[in-house]
Amino acid sequence: MRAACFETFQGPVAVTTLPDPAPAPDGVVIQVGATGLCRSDWHGWMGHDPDIRLPHVPGHELAGTVVAVGRDVRRWRAGQRVTVPFVGGCGHCGQCASGNHQVCDSQFQPGFTHWGSFAEYVAIGYADTNLVALPDAIDMATAASLGCRFVTAFRGVIDQGRLRAGERIAVHGCGGVGLSAIMIAVACGAQVIAIDIDADKLALARRLGAATVIDARVEGDIPAAVRAASDGGVELSVDALGHPVTCVNSILSLAKRGRHVQIGLMLADQARPAIPMDRVIAHELEILGSHGMQAFRYAPMMAMIASGRLRPDRLIGARVSLDDGARLLPQMDRFAGTGVTIIDRF
């Protein structure tokens, strides 16, 4: 199979020919129809993820067709169109038994713990627990765009953030995660404040329904600007970027008893930012993490997509080839472009 692979961290990403994978007894092999290019893949290439073993094929936002099935798989067969959460559960540990596959004690992550989807084929384990069937109405590129960004935003806003109609939410960072969070929040009837440093991303946030946009290049005090736009602070604030500054800004944007959800990754030397714990205690704030979404929780999101309430296809910014994806991966820290980049030619 053709695959994008790197042999050293921060080294060249080359498209090469590698052996086709075979399914594990509890797994399947998927022919990749489309896969997203995500900043998490860049973190992996940088060497920030201890699970990665070299050489490595990245890619964790995928959709495709099952082409081979392990002997122990009961729910899936060749020819089915599927997607998969970027964090998969083993189906057997205590976390999985409680329905929290996204924090499985033995989690499976294509593109991190195993080779990923920047390839013609990818092997996925624990298939009966983790695969999600694709409705005929959802094409491969749209399904891949759900990837880690849209589904993580959905769980972060809906399940972790507990957003309700009429509440106010601030979204710090208008990349793929942030724009997804904005779309989901608007669909829930919330008032959205979007913050970024890029005028094009803020313009897209406005088109997606953000009531207020704040240009962080212009506003010197982002929390003050958010509080001014929300009459004292928002009920929910999301750091969709993953940076010590946006994390603290998000917490300081909250109204009393507000909820901060950290979706954007902070790794390496940014992994442990200073938190304004005095404000957290005095205002009884909640700080919540969000790490993927269980396969069984896709159903409400898919229903909203099928009804037209959610349009993740509007977030697709570019469609590129595998060769282009290999070239673009090392540039993901530059935050260039608007929306989600999809690899759909292999």
TrEMBL record:
Per its UniProt record, the required cofactor names are:
Zn(2+)
- A Pfam family of the record is ADH_zinc_N
Q: Which UniProt keywords apply?
A: Metal-binding, Oxidoreductase, Zinc
**Positions of the Enoyl reductase (ER) domain:** 7-343
- Tell me the superkingdom of the source: Bacteria
The residues that cross the membrane are: none
The record's comment on protein family reads:
Belongs to the zinc-containing alcohol dehydrogenase family.
Its protein name is Alcohol dehydrogenase
Q: What lineage is this protein's organism placed in?
A: Bacteria, Pseudomonadati, Pseudomonadota, Alphaproteobacteria, Geminicoccales
- What is the gene name? adh
